[in-house]
Design a protein that fits this description.
Structural class: alpha+beta
CATH architecture of one domain: Beta Barrel
CATH topology of one domain: Lipocalin
Strand content: 25-35%
Number of strands: 9
Number of helices: 3
Strand order of the largest sheet: 1-9-8-7-6-5-4-3-2
Keywords: Signal
Shape: globular
Distance between the termini: 61 Å
Order of helices and strands: HHEHEEEEEEEE
Largest sheet: 9 strands, mixed
Length: 265
Amino acid sequence: MNTCRAALAACIALTLVQPASAQLDASPGSPVPEGLSEGEGAPYPKGHYAALDQLPDWGGIWFIQRRAPGSGPPPQPVLKGKYNEAREAWRAEVAANEGVERLERSNCSPPGLPRIMQLPQYPYEFLFTPGRVTINQEAWMQTRTIWTDGRGHPEDPDPTFHGHSIGHWEDGALVVDTIGISDLLEVGDGGRHSDQFHLTERIYLSPDNPDLLINEMRMEDPEAFAEPFEVTLSYRRDRNGTLIEFQCSENDRNPVDENGNTLYL
């Protein structure tokens, strides 16, 4: 027993005294992104910053434009089968609960795409760096990455709140393609989508107003949607504004029951 322990201790000691370079070499790195070769893309930005001067001016922060009074409820996707049945059940539950929506996930988890791009009270910030566009969102302090370095989507992406986004520029418009969005997230009011959900966006400055940013969204899901769903969003610029800290649980006075539902006192 003591001999085994001594041998184990010796092995651990040898591991700990290895040079730092040897320890780093033993750690495998991430694979080269789909569609790129070693030495290409956003991980190698040197020499590409000058190209950013050719991109449009999206400086400042951006607030989504609220719908005009009297314009009616926002459009909703046309769902089919079990997805439509689930939405109708959700609507009935909300009506019975005096308009309160209960989520099946944490009360502090972000809404994810596409809903997080549609929040009226929280602004967005767009950062351009070689090979990527980064969207900083005040809501939940979320960060969304859109890869513009020519990579493709991974073959089987893990579902996440923002999915996997790739994009390219067309005459001043950022064209974005996103897959891999978690099917636990809502689309529209109470609607859900499948793992085949596909979001495309075309984001550009209004030709009539350089302080207005347009986002044309198109959502497709052959399993959940009866037809593609399109919506156009607009955001107004606050040139000198900055994002402020968002802490979801701060001042949260509503307790949660054993099922994870918020108790309204």
